[in-house]
Automatic annotation (TrEMBL):
InterPro entries: MTAP, Nucleoside_phosphorylase_d, Nucleoside_phosphorylase_sf
CDD domains reported for this sequence: MTAP_SsMTAPII_like_MTIP
Binding site for phosphate: 11, 51-52, 182
Positions of substrate binding: 181, 205-207
Pathway: Purine metabolism; purine nucleoside salvage
Protein name, as recorded: Probable 6-oxopurine nucleoside phosphorylase
Residues annotated as site: Important for substrate specificity: 163, 217
């Protein structure tokens, strides 16, 4: 069987608990090794990569995005469902709600963003996130009665610090809805690799200056933990559809 579907688990999603007969594989790529778990779900082989490592030890600006996507491409993966914890800048997008991201604004600073080392290639980014996968996710969320938004603009910051309230006000004026630290370059590299990619963003908090509290990584992890079961149900249903 070939692996066609992969899950990239973000903060709070570290183990492929929906899969049976999981085996661990080390893949060699030109960008370094990647550990992937491969298991079965309903007669399908599904790969799982923990973006920050299984012990959440790799911060967003040091994730080896190129190795992760290259490794999944080598396996034959055609579709990636990536989870991401995000803060919200949009009063309509509330904690514990899901956003099926359709656009990004890139504010990263130090990350390799391409596999292409020779020649001039300008990749179209009209639909950076796969419209078909997003439609499948929306259908699955509707069927499961999960609160969700079918589109949203993800502002990707460099991190690992959270944003200032002034940055958040600027991002809002620019049209951002949610803010996180990982979707770029992951989505860009997946597009270069010709893999259909969707981000399932889980709002864990209102962003800095909107939230009445100071932000903490602990708060993000706690909200993700409360919602892991819903994320799992969504991913399972989306794979079935
Ligand atoms: N900012 C950046 N990344 C995040 C946030 C945030 O408020 N919440 C979860 N990930």
């Amino acid at each position: 069987m070939t692996v066609r579907i992969a899950i990239i688990g973000g903060t709070g999603v570290y183990d492929p608990s929906i899969l049976d007969e999981v085996r661990q594989k080390r893949l060699e790529t030109p960008f370094g090794p990647v550990w992937v778990k491969i298991g079965n779900y309903r007669e399908r082989e599904v790969a799982f990569v923990a973006r920050h490592g299984e012990d959440h030890s790799v911060p967003p600006h040091l994730v080896n995005y190129r190795a992760n996507i290259w490794g999944l491409k080598q396996l034959g993966v055609k579709s990636i469902l990536a989870t991401a914890a995000v803060g919200s800048l949009n009063p309509e997008m509330k904690p514990c709600q899901l956003v099926f991201v359709d656009q990004f604004l890139d504010f990263t600073k130090s990350r390799p963003q391409t596999f292409i080392e020779k020649g001039v290639v300008h990749l179209d980014m009209t639909d950076p996130y796969c419209p078909e996968l997003r439609a499948t996710l929306a259908r699955a969320a509707r069927e499961l009665g999960l609160e969700h938004h079918t589109a949203g603009t993800y502002v990707c910051t460099e991190g690992p610090r959270f944003e200032t309230p002034a940055e958040i006000r600027m991002f809002r004026q620019l049209g951002g809805d949610i803010v996180g630290m990982t979707s770029v370059p992951e989505v860009v590299l997946a597009r270069e690799a010709g893999i259909c990619y969707a981000t399932i963003a889980m709002v864990t908090n209102f962003a800095a200056g909107i939230s009445p509290n100071r932000l903490s990584h602990q708060e993000v992890v706690e909200v993700m933990a409360e919602n892991t079961a819903n994320l799992r149900r969504l991913v399972m249903r989306a794979i079935e559809l």
